[in-house]
Prior knowledge:
This protein is about 35% helix and about 25% strand. It is built from 3 helices and 4 strands; from the N terminus they run αββααββ. Strands 1-2-4-3 form a 4-stranded antiparallel beta sheet. Strand 1 and strand 2 form a beta hairpin.
Amino acid sequence: MRMKLAAYLVAVCGMLAAAVPAQADWMQPVPPFKGNDTGGIIAYTLATQSDARQLAVDHCAVYGKVVKFLAVQAYPGGYISFACRWVPYGAASRPLRTLY
C-alpha cells in the first residue's frame, strides 16, 4: 500500500514539474518612469540623463499635489522614489504645471 502511494506521489510531482516550467522573465520590465496619483519611481539611469526633480514635480502637479522625495538608490539599476502629497495648508494656490 505504501509503495503504491509513494509511486503515485512521485508520478504526480513529476507531471507537475514537467507541466509548469519556471520562468523568471515572463513579466515586462518596469519602465524608466512610472507613477500614479500617490507617487512613483524614476530609474536612476534616467535621473542621470534628465532632471528627475522636474519630472516628479510635473507628474504630481497633474493631480494637484506636491512632491516629497522618499529614497534614492544611487547605482545603475536603482530607483528614485517619490510621493505625491496634497498641497500643504496655507498655500496660496495649487502647484504649477510646466508646459513645454
